[in-house]
């Protein structure tokens, strides 16, 4: 195996075109499954296509002008910000807390890590349906529990703001294990000599965490924050499973609204326009956040 790897490296060094040749399959897949759908979506966003008919016409920027004044889009956009930034904040705090605890060696540490990470391996839609049967008004597990104490049933998802916050918290709890794994990897890469030197100098636990651990976790923090932001801003499964955007359209994310506009309202052209807006927004947020965090890393390393 070692000789085989050496031969491959020598072949690539002797012929630089080999690297391009080896990258062609990946590049072709990227073109087919990323570039082409994006171009197709841009094209559809300028039409009045209903998603099913063979006939449609181009309407210019009408879909984008409609989007600017559409209260459904702005409600979904506000909710998307809560899902994205709110989930990221809670996931980061929970993930870092679990990582700080489970980086230490103790009995059943592996089991605890598995239990916390396990929900991250389950499809978001499945998690949503599980929680739906917990918080639903009729025969919901949560209402059955509070009923044991003589408390009246609560329709947890009947108010838009409360529904959005509940969905945000469920997403945070379900996927904090992913954040935990990233931080554990970062913590395990920090040499012990730094914390030992800080302890000798008289630093307490908080000072050691603030001035040593946290700055050296910046690379892990960058990865975690960018992934969590992207995941939260494109939240779909939990919203569809738990409220389907209701009550009314009060808990829609942009992703679930796009789905609703296409399949329920048969407004494929308008749906594509909202989708392009969502795509550009998520790309810009992820780029700006990554650049900012990388700059922080450079300042610390410099």
What's the gist of this structure?
The protein is mainly α and 302 residues long.
Report on the architecture of this protein.
With 302 residues, this protein is mainly α. The chain has a single domain (61-301), classed as MetI-like (MetI-like fold, Orthogonal Bundle), CATH 1.10.3720. Helix content is 74%, strand content 0%. It contains 14 helices and no strands. It has helices at residues 2-14, 17-44, 62-68, 71-102, 109-117, 124-135, 141-147, 160-188, 192-200, 205-216, 218-233, 237-242, 254-263, 268-301. The radius of gyration is 24 Å and the shape is globular. The two termini are 40 Å apart. The model has no long low-confidence stretch (mean pLDDT 89).
Largest sheet: none
Rg over CA atoms, rounded to whole Å, is 24 Å
The residue fraction in helices comes out at over 70%
Number of domains: 1
CATH fold-level name? MetI-like fold
β-strand percent reads under 5%
Question: Features of this protein?
Answer:
single chain; about 300 residues; mainly alpha; MetI-like fold; about 0% strand
Helices and strands, with pairings:
Blueprint: H1 2-14, H2 17-44, H3 62-68, H4 71-102, H5 109-117, H6 124-135, H7 141-147, H8 160-188, H9 192-200, H10 205-216, H11 218-233, H12 237-242, H13 254-263, H14 268-301
């Amino acid at each position: 195996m070692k000789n085989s790897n050496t031969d491959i490296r020598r072949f690539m060094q002797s012929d630089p075109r080999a690297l391009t040749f080896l990258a062609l399959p990946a590049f072709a897949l990227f073109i087919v499954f990323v570039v082409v759908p994006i171009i197709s979506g841009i094209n559809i966003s300028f039409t009045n296509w209903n998603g099913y008919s063979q006939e449609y016409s181009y309407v210019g920027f009408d879909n984008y002008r409609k989007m600017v004044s559409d209260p459904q889009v702005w409600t979904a956009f506000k909710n998307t910000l809560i899902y994205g930034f709110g989930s990221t904040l809670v996931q980061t705090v929970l993930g870092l807390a679990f990582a700080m605890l489970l980086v230490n060696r103790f009995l059943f540490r592996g089991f605890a890590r598995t239990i916390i990470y396990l929900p991250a391996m389950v499809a978001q839609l499945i998690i949503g349906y599980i929680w739906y049967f917990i918080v639903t008004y009729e025969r919901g597990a949560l209402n059955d529990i509070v009923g044991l104490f003589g408390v009246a049933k609560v329709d947890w998802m009947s108010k838009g703001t409360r529904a959005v916050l509940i969905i945000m918290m469920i997403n945070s709890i379900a996927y904090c294990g992913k954040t935990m794994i990233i931080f554990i990897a970062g913590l395990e890469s920090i040499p012990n000599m730094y914390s030992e030197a800080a302890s000798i100098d008289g630093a307490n636990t908080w000072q050691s965490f603030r001035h040593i651990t946290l700055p050296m976790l910046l690379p892990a923090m960058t990865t975690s924050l960018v992934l969590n932001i992207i995941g939260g801003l494109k939240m779909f499964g939990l919203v569809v499973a738990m409220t389907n955007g209701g009550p009314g359209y009060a808990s829609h994310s942009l992703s679930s609204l796009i789905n609703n506009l296409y399949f329920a309202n048969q407004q494929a052209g308008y749906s594509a326009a909202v989708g392009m807006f969502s795509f550009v927004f998520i790309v810009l947020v992820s780029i700006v956040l990554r650049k900012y965090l990388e700059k922080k890393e450079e300042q610390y390393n410099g």
